[in-house]
Amino acid sequence: MNLKIAVLPGDGIGPEVILQAKKALYAVGVVYEHDFLFEEALIGAIAIDKTGSALPEQTLNLCLNTDAVLLGAIGDPKYGTDAAANVRPEDGLLKLRKELGLFINIRPLKPFKGLLNVSPLKREIVEGVDFVIYRELTAGIYFGEKKLNEAETVASDLCEYTEEEISRITHLAFQSAQRRRKKVTLVDMANVLESSRLWRKVVKKISLEYSDVELDFLFANNAAKQIVRNPKQFDVVLTGNLFGDILSDEASVITGSIGVLPSVSLGENKVLFEPVHGSYPHAKGRNIANPFASILSVAMLLDHFGLKKEARKVLAGVEKAIEYNVVTIDLNPDSKFGTNEVGEFVSNFILNKDDLMYF
Ligand code: IPM
Ligand code: MN
């Protein structure tokens, strides 16, 4: 298969973890005879530094003309979070999502067997968890009108959803549930927010078309508790942009580290893969960032394009690294292995090298 992939390493640890993801893809290409063509482009703080824009035209054009986008991370503390900032790294990612029409972000949560003891949660809570978060990605409070009065004493962000924006992700969530354990949990704040009440109405109506799928509702505050208290109840968690962002970071506690969570964002015809974690500026350049989330994003990419055995091989490489304890310090504080060594182990596994470097 020929695939042209836009690679956007971004900021912080982004370039380091993306390098390992590229190595895994390269290894898959060699072993299974695929042509993966990578083209790199700037986004985020590094793009602001070099071009003045968080999403340069060239980057957007590249992404519009490739089969897939592979993204590292966005964000740099030197661009503060104060009102005065007129360019923000995060705006690059938000604009990219909007321009590519990536209205849904899918984040699977399934702990690795070898990492059950890494989670701070009790083993009986974590073992057997298997759910997926369907987060709406191009609307809601992230994209509503923002206002700040002249005196900078009053500010607002509008949380707006249309029936169409709710319904397109809802259908995909129900279809996913049909392939899984047939349950959708809508997370909202319908006791307080008008936009949430619209979500409920639209989701309830659509649920009638999927009579084999059970529909459950949770207020976001309760969902935040249930995710660490009884996460096994979830199959497909359907929610808006902001709640989805917050709950997916929280859910990473189940797997032991946010460094193992991949994601895919989908639209009508575009697709983007990225780790759930952020740019982790403190770890930049220190060879300590966990590359698994990026490498597993590559497995999702392969799976998306129907390359099932290739995807399984990448996943098996990560499982093998965990089995041999070739992991970064977020998973094992005593580890002597860093980003490079862990990534190298996985790509060597994919290449079927017998002399697995460290053993
Ligand atoms: C994510 C990130 C982004 C988000 C930021 C960087 C804008 O946290 O992809 O989860 O909030 O969507
Ligand atoms: Mn996030």
TrEMBL record:
Binds 1 Mg(2+) or Mn(2+) ion per subunit. It catalyses: (2R,3S)-3-isopropylmalate + NAD(+) = 4-methyl-2-oxopentanoate + CO2 + NADH. Residues 4-346 form the Isopropylmalate dehydrogenase-like domain. One of its GO terms (biological process) is L-leucine biosynthetic process. Pathway: Amino-acid biosynthesis; L-leucine biosynthesis; L-leucine from 3-methyl-2-oxobutanoate: step 3/4. SMART domains: Iso_dh. The keyword Transcription does not apply. Transmembrane segments: none annotated. Keywords: Amino-acid biosynthesis, Branched-chain amino acid biosynthesis, Leucine biosynthesis, Magnesium, Manganese, Metal-binding, NAD, Oxidoreductase. One of its GO terms (cellular component) is cytosol. InterPro entries: IsoCit/isopropylmalate_DH_CS (IPR019818), IsoPropMal-DH-like_dom (IPR024084), Isopropylmalate_DH (IPR004429). GO terms for molecular function: 3-isopropylmalate dehydrogenase activity; magnesium ion binding; NAD binding. Its EC number is 1.1.1.85. Its cofactor is Mn(2+); Mg(2+). It comes from the Bacteria. Catalyzes the oxidation of 3-carboxy-2-hydroxy-4-methylpentanoate (3-isopropylmalate) to 3-carboxy-4-methyl-2-oxopentanoate. The product decarboxylates to 4-methyl-2 oxopentanoate. Belongs to the isocitrate and isopropylmalate dehydrogenases family. LeuB type 1 subfamily. Homodimer. This is 3-isopropylmalate dehydrogenase. It comes from Flavobacterium seoulense.
